[in-house]
Backbone:
């Protein structure tokens, strides 16, 4: 069986070699990259623009963005037919290809986030290392921790007031430099699609901008949702711990902090949502208005075959419903949680409709192809490019976030 | 002792310097520059006479055997399309298994294993169109390949390095003609290369050799005495999907407006 045959159903005339080659992993790729960029932009709103109300979520989203970073690459690797050669993109980049920019933009961005994190958490590293150093007769685990934190300080043990202020300035500069790079990271993901002239649905200069806007939307939504979830877990934990340690913040204190942050962040979410939806609709209307040669087949895909995916799930459930949920006054945590889940669904469906929808018609404009998502893997191929592969990609950032949080506690007051 | 600031500066400088990939040096490859200027070299082109094609599919068979594309796999480097235009103005197209076995059924294959029967009296015109890689002068597949595994030779043929391709599928997406696919055995991008191993030794391509009707011909555009060049220069030839700006180098005689 040839690659793509397992999940492609053909109808009418398609060229013999045409299959759905870019599957759910290529849907996951811009989705995950978008989350990285969005989470970073959210954290920068505090660091660069001084939106003080977002302080609570800024550090959280910065660490989360770092946890998401390696996962932006994972779907690409899983989709490659020769994954062991994936590193060649970094080693022998062919610069006329949009994918070749990946190595440079991705590593630049990674370095910026890593440095920013270091400046934010340097005080914590030093304090932890010093505290561990003071312990007499360290256990193996403590010794390991001591080594780890000593290395993480990179030899900068100075935590005087001046040094910490210098750190703050560095964070601000890095965050400012990071915004364009984060946008570029995602913009070029849109460019990968927008520059494929052979594909009538993808071919639009608006593609990178649409991708950036919806990336910020999805990143903010995921940060709000994860923030709510972690705060809920903390509340439950603190209820138990407060019995032993009464100095810990009370349930009510945690709750009000949470509500405040969520309300503030969701306002930014709404702003970016308006921009994203406007651009997407502009693209759709423009295509219909100009009605070039490809419009006939695009119309039948958009308004007939993918109608439910595009208008019901993406625009209806994923955009309109959360929009209304956020706009109704007196935003509750529960409503915000439902809203953000729907927003994430909407952005995911936007990626799905672009990637899969773009391959739903033949280049001959005479036939259609339908992607049947492999649910249960029966081969390596259907494992990698099916539901299981997508779930692996979706789960990894949370595991990484858990581990990172052990080293860089997002809720600890550091400065 | 080196200060932290100067250490950071210097290491950034070194890292930046190392980051300039050696591939950039390709720009100054004198051999390549010479080859591109070489007027005496070949520019391989293809001529398809659709009026002569009978849809027997021998070319598809010949190509599969010659180029190690698994015989039963539902992908092919070259294929033949059947066009049936009915009196109501509709165009019915199919290419079952790329026409490897010709067109054994009169009905048009519409997918899902179904055939659409068309009455003889409803047919306005019908014809066959062989397809293959257009070896474009401005190949989008070469442009989008992230590692340079797809490249163009000085004589115009676009090749794929099977040892270098990472299998991302970007070239498959970038080709407006749908000629590319993943090789079922090597798991890398695959396409027609005008039987480069044959034409560079003065032989014909496998599909040209298999065609009993002279519907396929390969030639050198830089040789004015080449019979194929003479036809391209003097007769009314056409190319597929010119609007994509890829400058295809497969020329068709007797192309109809229905051809996609």
Residues:
């Amino acid at each position: 069986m040839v690659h793509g045959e397992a999940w492609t159903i053909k109808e009418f005339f398609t060229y013999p070699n045409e299959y759905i080659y870019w599957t759910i992993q290529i849907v996951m790729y811009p989705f995950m990259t978008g989350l990285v960029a969005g989470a970073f932009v959210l954290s920068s709103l505090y660091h660069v623009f001084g939106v003080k109300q977002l302080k609570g979520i800024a550090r959280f989203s910065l660490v989360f963005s770092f946890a998401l970073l390696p996962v932006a690459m994972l779907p690409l690797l899983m989709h490659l037919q020769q994954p062991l050669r994936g590193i060649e993109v970094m080693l022998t980049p062919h610069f006329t290809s949009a994918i070749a920019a990946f190595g440079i933009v991705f590593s630049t961005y990674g370095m910026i986030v890593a440095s920013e994190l270091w400046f934010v958490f340097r005080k914590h590293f030093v304090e932890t290392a010093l505290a561990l150093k003071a312990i007499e007769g360290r256990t193996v685990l403590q010794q390991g921790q001591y080594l780890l934190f000593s290395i993480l300080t990179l030899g900068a043990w100075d935590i005087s007031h001046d040094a910490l202020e210098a750190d703050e300035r560095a964070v601000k500069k890095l965050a400012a430099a990071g915004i364009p790079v984060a946008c570029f990271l995602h913009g070029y993901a849109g460019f990968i699609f927008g520059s494929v002239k052979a594909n009538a649905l993808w071919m639009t200069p608006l593609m990178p901008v649409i991708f950036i806007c919806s990336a910020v939307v999805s990143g903010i939504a995921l940060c709000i949702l994860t923030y709510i979830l972690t705060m809920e877990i903390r509340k439950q934990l603190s209820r138990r711990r407060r019995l032993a340690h009464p100095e810990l913040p009370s349930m009510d204190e945690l709750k009000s902090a949470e509500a405040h942050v969520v309300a503030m962040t969701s306002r930014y979410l709404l702003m970016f949502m308006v921009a994203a939806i406007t651009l997407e609709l502009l693209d759709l209307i423009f295509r219909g208005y100009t009605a070039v040669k490809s419009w006939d087949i695009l119309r039948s895909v958009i308004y007939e075959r993918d109608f439910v995916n595009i208008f019901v799930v993406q625009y209806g459930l994923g955009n309109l419903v959360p929009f209304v949920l956020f706009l109704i006054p007196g935003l509750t945590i529960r409503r915000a949680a439902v809203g953000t889940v729907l927003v994430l669904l909407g952005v995911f469906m936007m990626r799905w409709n672009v990637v899969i929808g773009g391959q739903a018609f033949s280049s001959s404009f005479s036939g259609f192809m339908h992607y049947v998502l492999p649910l249960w893997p029966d081969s390596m191929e259907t494992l990698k490019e099916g539901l299981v592969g997508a779930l692996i990609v979706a789960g990894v950032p949370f595991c990484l976030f858990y581990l990172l949080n052990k080293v860089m506690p997002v809720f600890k007051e550091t400065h | 002792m080196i200060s932290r600031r100067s250490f950071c500066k210097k290491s950034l400088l070194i890292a930046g310097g190392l980051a300039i990939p050696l591939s950039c040096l390709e720009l100054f490859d004198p051999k390549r520059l010479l080859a591109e200027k070489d007027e005496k070299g070949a520019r391989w082109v293809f001529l398809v006479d659709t009026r002569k094609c009978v849809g027997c599919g021998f070319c598809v068979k010949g190509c599969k055997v010659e180029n190690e594309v698994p015989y039963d796999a539902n992908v092919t480097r070259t294929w033949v399309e059947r066009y049936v235009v009915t009196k109501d103005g509709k165009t019915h197209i199919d290419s079952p298994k790329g026409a490897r076995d010709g067109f054994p059924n009169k009905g048009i294959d519409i997918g899902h294993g179904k055939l659409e029967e068309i009455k003889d009296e409803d047919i306005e015109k019908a014809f066959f169109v062989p397809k293959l890689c257009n070896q474009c002068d401005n190949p989008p597949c070469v442009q989008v390949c992230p590692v340079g595994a797809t490249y163009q030779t000085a004589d115009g043929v676009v090749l794929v390095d099977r040892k270098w391709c990472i299998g991302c599928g970007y070239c498959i997406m970038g080709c407006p003609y749908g000629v590319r696919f993943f090789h079922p055995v090597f798991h890398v991008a695959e396409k027609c290369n005008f039987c480069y191993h044959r034409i560079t030794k003065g032989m014909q391509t496998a599909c040209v050799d298999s065609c009993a009707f002279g519907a396929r011909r390969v030639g050198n555009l830089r040789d004015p005495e080449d019979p194929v060049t003479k036809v391209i220069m003097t007769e009314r030839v056409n190319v597929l999907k010119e609007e994509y700006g890829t400058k295809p180098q497969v020329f068709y005689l007797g192309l109809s407006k229905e051809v996609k």
